[in-house]
Each structure stands twice: as C-alpha cells, then as structure tokens.
C-alpha cells in the first residue's frame, strides 16, 4: 500500500534518488538540475508531498502558487511503481489542497494520459518559457481541473 504524506526535509535525499531514476527513464526533468533538492523546493512552493511504499519514496508532488491559481508541479513516480495509482494518489492530494492547474510538455504521453484520466481538462497549448538542450522550445499543454470530476474525492 502507498502512503501519501507531507514531505519533510529528511525526505529530500530519497526524493532526489527517485527523481534520478525518473530522469534516466523519462528525461524528466529534461535538464538535470545543478542542485536537485533545491529544484524540488521552488521559491513559490506552498506544499509538497511524497508517496511512500515500504518506507521508500516512490513519488512526489509540489503545489506552487502562481498568480490566480495553485499549480501542480514536480510530479513524478518511480518507474517501478507506475500503474499502481501512485500518480492518482498524489494528484488527488494536490487537488484536495487546492491545486487547479498544471502544465506538461507535449511529448509526455504517459503523464497526459494520467491527467486526462483523473479529471483534468486541456485548456491551452503554448511554447514553453524554457528551451531544451538542443535549443528547441517545447510545446506545453495547460490543464485545468474539471470541477465536475469525481476523481478528487
């Protein structure tokens, strides 16, 4: 069984280890951060949660404050724990805490599938504000939570 709980400072090494696995598997984040623990703790962070299984971090999500809304950010699930509703549980926690928006780059098909399956609606696409290592600017898909979805309860 997976437990979702608030992240604490002692969780960061396990979160970085999990993020490293995700980066190797999925190229997320596209550019490995110089300080991964700091990347997992953005300045506008309102809250963060980890998903644990057998006392190991298997997933992570951050809630960030952007003008007008709370956004899901830094969401990832260790490759070996996908398909076991870890992502669903983390998104549910973020929604319960007030998250109403998220973004994802267009080629992240598994993440897009998760968001659309759990009650998020595509509302916009736009070029990202950052570039990939090859200089290309990816397309971001912007999602808003569907208030009529029952996935948040």
Provide an overview of this structure.
29% of the residues are buried. The chain has helices at 12-26, 36-39, 86-96, 109-117, and strands at 3-6, 45-53, 56-66, 69-77, 101-105, 120-127, 139-145. The longest helix is centred in the first third of the chain and has 15 residues, at 12-26. The chain contains four helices and seven strands. The mean pLDDT is 93. A hairpin with a 2-residue loop joins strand 2 (45-53) and strand 3. It starts with a strand and ends in an 8-residue tail after the last strand. The strands form two sheets. Strands 1-2-3-4 form a four-stranded antiparallel beta sheet. Strands 5-7-6 form a three-stranded antiparallel beta sheet, with helices on one face. The protein has 153 residues and is α+β, with helices and mostly antiparallel strands.
Task: Describe the protein's topology.
Elements: E1 3-6, H1 12-26, H2 36-39, E2 45-53, E3 56-66, E4 69-77, H3 86-96, E5 101-105, H4 109-117, E6 120-127, E7 139-145
Antiparallel strand pairs: 1-2, 2-3, 3-4, 5-7, 6-7
What does this entry show, briefly?
With 153 residues, the protein is an alpha+beta fold.
Q: Figure out the total of helices.
A: 4
Largest sheet, if any?
A: 4 strands, antiparallel
Strand order of the largest sheet: 1-2-3-4
Helix content: 25-40%
- β-strand percent reads 25-35%
Mean of all residue-level pLDDT scores: 93
> What is the helix/strand order?
EHHEEEHEHEE
Rg for CA atoms: 15 Å
Q: Between the first and last Cα atoms, what is the distance in angstroms?
A: 18 Å
Give the CA-based shape: globular
């Amino acid at each position: 069984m997976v437990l979702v709980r608030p992240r604490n400072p002692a969780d960061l090494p396990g979160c970085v280890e999990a993020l490293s696995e995700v980066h190797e598997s999925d190229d997320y984040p596209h550019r490995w951060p110089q300080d991964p623990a700091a990347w997992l703790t953005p300045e506008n962070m309102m809250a963060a949660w980890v998903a644990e299984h057998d006392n190991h971090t298997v997933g992570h999500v951050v809630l960030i404050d952007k003008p007008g809304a709370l956004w899901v950010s830094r969401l990832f699930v260790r490759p070996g724990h996908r398909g076991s509703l870890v992502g669903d549980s983390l998104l549910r926690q973020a929604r319960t805490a007030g998250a109403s928006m998220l973004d994802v780059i267009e080629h992240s098909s598994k993440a897009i599938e998760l968001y659309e399956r759990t009650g998020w609606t595509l509302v916009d696409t736009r070029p990202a504000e950052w570039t990939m290592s090859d200089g290309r600017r990816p397309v971001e898909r912007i999602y808003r939570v569907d208030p009529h979805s029952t996935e948040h309860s």
